[in-house]
Amino acid sequence: MDIQRIDLDRPGDLLAGLHDAHLAAFAHLQGPRMSLPDFTRMVSRGLPGDLMEAWAVVEDGVVVAGYGLELPMSDNTHLGRLRPLLVRPGRRRRGLGTALLAHAADRLRTAGRRLLVAEGEAKDPAAGFARARGFTASLGEARRMLDLRTADWHRLERMLGEAEARAGGYRLERWIGAAPPELHDDLVLMMEGMNDAPQSDDVDDMKWDTSRIAASEALDSEFAQLTYSMLARRDSDGAPAGYTRVYVDLAQPDGWGRQADTVVLREHRGHRLGMVLKVSNLLWFREMEPDVERIITWNATSNAHMLAINEAMGFELIDEWNAWQLEV
User: Which PANTHER family match (predicted)?
Assistant: First the structure.
């Protein structure tokens, strides 16, 4: 078996072929399909500053399997993330996945790292494959969807009014696309606050600074992701308190919006700011993107507070996933 490295500076047809294999491998899932720009970002760029590799298996001129590997450099330098490992359905049960996993583990050891992490469905065959090869489930995750065509908008507006009554002393700021530089310091605090969310064992907090924020914002624009962001700020001193954002994939106008980060910093909790931010941003997003029909979100199944907000808004469960870990 020939496992070819994809030159991420000049990927040619291999990266497009790996994207096509990705679409085939995950065609059974509900939810939006990943566009080629979004996939390219995932396997070739990752988070700003991280090292990226991508590998493919080609048979009869077709990419039939492969994986991306992300090696964090600013934090978590003991691990690597699969982005992801995949095999076309018609080529499974021939040892391709096992060979690719062994290859990825070897690449990780070569980089001086010991922990391989991945995300995959919590049910078979993905879960069976992972467990049979020594992975352990470290964090339960769930995908939920809000259908904007059938959402109870009157109820959402009423919920927002009730939450705003508890959130006196705060104001909201909003913007489309990349955040202006004067907000980068605030966004550092927001992204560091995301470290409070449940995460896998043996995974360290992520480190952020203004240069990493700027690079991440630039990647959104480069790869055709248009974000609608909202920040809560305390009136008395201007302190940033919470943040949320939703985005659309401009390369694939498929009727889906994607809920990304939502956070309220510890000292500002207890004022219903999470509900205020998410519902306010949703109402604005609906006004600006009338062709979007559904929004998808991911949460740890142990994040009870955020799950309660999402369920109150009308998000419904699609499926459950696991964060998997393998010591190599």
Answer: AMINOALKYLPHOSPHONATE N-ACETYLTRANSFERASE-RELATED-RELATED
Mean confidence (pLDDT) of the chain: 96
Three state DSSP letters for the chain: CCEEECCCCCCHHHHHHHHHHHHHHCCCCCCCCCCHHHHHHHHHCCCCCCEEEEEEEEECCEEEEEEEEEECCCCCCCEEEEEEEEECHHHCCCCHHHHHHHHHHHHHHHCCCCEEEEEEECCCCHHHHHHHCCCEEEEEEEEEEEECCCCCHHHHHHHHHHHHHHCCCEEEEEEECCCCHHHHHHHHHHHHHHHHCCCCCCCCCCCCCHHHHHHHHHHHHHCCEEEEEEEEEECCCCCEEEEEEEEEECCCCCCEEEEEEEEECHHHCCCCHHHHHHHHHHHHHHHHCCCCCEEEEEEECCCHHHHHHHHHHCCEEEEEEEEEEEEC
Domains and CATH numbers, the chain: 3-113 (3.40.630.30), 144-321 (3.40.630.30)
Q: Which amino acid is at 64?
A: V
Rounded percentage of the chain residues whose pLDDT exceeds 90: 95
Distance of CA 168 to the CA centre of its chain: 31
Encoded tokens for 265: 């910093």
CA distances for 165 relative to 50, 132, 148, 269, 272, angstroms: 43, 52, 25, 14, 9
Q: 145 and 316 in contact (C-beta within 8 Å)? A: yes
pLDDT in tens, 54-109: 999 999 999 999 999 999 999 999 999 999 999 999 999 999 999 999 999 999 99
The single residue listed with the structure tokens 């949460």 is 299
Q: What pLDDT is attached to residue 47? A: 83
